Structure formats: C-alpha cells, structure tokens
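1st attempt posting a full record on here, be nice pls
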Amino acid sequence: MSLEERAKATAKNVEGKIQDAVGRATGDPEDQIKGKAKQAEGSARHAKEDVKDDVKRGADKL
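the predicted structure (as tokens):
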C-alpha cells in the first residue's frame, strides 16, 4: 500500500467535492461536472491501491 498514492487520491476526491459544491452554489454546471470527474478519479485511484494491496497479500501467502 502506497500511503502517498492514497493521500493523493483522497486529496483529489476532496478537491472534486469542493469544486462540485462551488458549482452548485454558483449555478455553474461545468464546475459541477469537473468536480464529479475529480471525485471519480479519486475513487479510481483508491480502487487501484486496493487491488495492489490484494495482490500483495495474495503473493505474501505463497
């Protein structure tokens, strides 16, 4: 598990949530879309780290 990569993924997710909220507050759908995309990217990064952890745990059992 890369703690640095998980931190980056969390930061991207938070950044997306903020941008989405600003877009909703200002009525800017483009900001909302970009914010949701950043949240999806953060989730994908977390999923990638989860897979890497699962593979490592599986390899450690061999």
